[in-house]
Structure formats: structure tokens, C-alpha cells
Amino acid sequence: MRITADTEADMSRTVEARLRKATNVTLPTDVYEEGKALGLNFSRIFEQAMREAIRVERGRRWATENVDFIAAHNAFVEKHGLPLAERRMF
Fold it and tell me: Which InterPro entries match (predicted)?
């Protein structure tokens, strides 16, 4: 069997579908009813919102864990300027 980009995409969607976990989400009735009436895909919207929330939380935690490094780097830049600043084209 020859694998093409389309075949790989189909395979990844199949694997992704198998790796999903069912979960319950409780919504206010008005949100549920309006979303349903508009034909919105609750699973897709929730997944996108969760991915964004995870991205933001990881960034927040990284900044918290690396606060000393960030402060040291900022102090260095204030004292010495940006490394290779003289080579910048803008």
C-alpha cells in the first residue's frame, strides 16, 4: 500500500478518534439550548476551548517557575542591551 498525505491524514484521524475520552460537561440550560438550536458542535468547541486554556495555563506556570531567570534576563538586557542588536536590520 502506498501512503500519501491523504492516507496519512485519514490514519491520524482514525487514531485520534480511538484516543478520545468521553466526558460529561454541565452547561446552563439556555447555553445548551441556544448552541443546539444553532447546530454547534459541542465536542469540537469544548476541545478547542480546553486546548486554549491548557496553552494559557502552561504559559502561566512556565512564567511562574522561571521568574528568576526572566528577571535575570531582563536585568542583563537593561544593562547590556540586546545581544547582537547592532546586527539587526530593523
Answer: Post-segregation_anti-tox_CcdA
Per-residue pLDDT tens digits for 24-73: 999 999 999 999 999 999 999 999 999 999 999 999 999 999 999 999 99
pTM score of the predicted model: 0.64
State the SS3 of the chain. Answer: CCCCHHHHHHHHHHHHHHCCCCCCCCCCHHHHHHHHHCCCCHHHHHHHHHHHHHHHHHHHHHHHHCHHHHHHHHHHHHHHCCCCHHHCCC
Here the cell at position 60 is 502561566
Radius of gyration of the chain (CA): 23
Residue 76, all three cell numbers: 542583563
Number of structural domains the chain divides into: 1
